[in-house]
């Protein structure tokens, strides 16, 4: 009697900052396509009504701005998943400040979440990425990674640093066959823009960024999108 091949295992993604915004759009898109997704955020799972509608999404509440939170996330993934095919570093926060008026520790706190979380999780999950036939790392940088602007000191510096980390991951992990891309979006309609005078139609929808990630992932293994800049059709705000 001929044997049938077993059902192939789903591809596995790890998405930080998964509870809302771009991270949520990535999680929902991958879930619709049959991926198994491990997401995390600061919100508690019971606060996320969308989670019950997902088929194969696992969620951990943890604070990635701390070394302990990053370790908890890494250990959770390592104990549950067999490999990591896609790692999306989306956890981050925005503040408006200048170098002279920034409150004490604000710069350090932003660096901890926007940069150190990606650094720590990348290091911890590297062995699991190496198990994948198509490993890919995405970092959610920003157009603020390219150009400083008044009033965004801590945010710009952290995003410049995140782009630098991305470049180092690309350079060092090239020999491991791990693709690394920096996404540099302009204004995306997320909670960061809550209360702004700009209408939703003026900003990019989060799903557009998620679909760009998927498009890059499905490119030939001979190709990598090192830096992907996305801007609202009518330009930056």
Name some characteristics of this structure.
single chain, 237 residues, alpha/beta, Rossmann fold, seven-stranded parallel beta sheet, 5 helices, 7 strands, 35% helix, globular
What does this molecule look like?
With 237 residues, this protein is of the alpha/beta class. The chain has a single domain (12-230), classed as Rossmann fold. Helices cover 35% and strands 15% of the residues. It contains 5 helices and 7 strands. The chain has helices at 21-32, 67-80, 106-129, 153-173, 206-217; strands at 12-15, 36-41, 57-61, 86-89, 136-140, 179-185, 227-230. The protein has a 7-stranded parallel β-sheet, sandwiched between helices. It is globular and about 55 Å long. The protein starts with 11 loop residues before the first strand and ends in a 7-residue tail after the last strand. The mean pLDDT is 95.
């Amino acid at each position: 009697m001929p044997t049938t091949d077993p059902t192939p295992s789903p591809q596995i993604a790890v998405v930080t900052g998964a509870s809302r915004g771009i991270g949520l759009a990535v999680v929902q898109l991958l879930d619709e396509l049959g991926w198994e997704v491990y997401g995390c955020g600061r919100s508690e799972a019971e606060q996320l009504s969308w989670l019950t509608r997902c088929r194969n999404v696992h969620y951990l509440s943890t604070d990635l701005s701390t070394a302990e939170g990053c370790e908890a996330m890494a250990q959770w993934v390592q104990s549950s998943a067999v490999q990591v095919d896609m790692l999306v570093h989306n956890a981050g926060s925005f503040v408006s400040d200048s170098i002279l008026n920034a409150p004490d520790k604000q710069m350090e706190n932003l660096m901890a979440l926007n940069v150190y979380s990606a650094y720590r999780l990348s290091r911890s999950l590297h062995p699991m990425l190496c198990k994948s036939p198509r490993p890919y790392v995405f970092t959610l940088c920003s157009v603020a990674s390219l150009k400083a602007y008044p009033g965004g000191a801590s945010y710009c510096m952290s995003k410049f640093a995140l782009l630098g980390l991305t470049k180092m991951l690309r350079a060092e992990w090239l020999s491991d066959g791990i693709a690394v891309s920096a996404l540099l979006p302009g204004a995306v309609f997320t909670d960061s823009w809550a209360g702004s005078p700009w209408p939703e139609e003026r900003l990019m929808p989060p799903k557009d960024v998620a679909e760009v990630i998927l498009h890059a992932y499905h490119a030939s293994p001979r190709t990598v999108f090192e830096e992907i800049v996305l801007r609202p059709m009518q330009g930056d705000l």
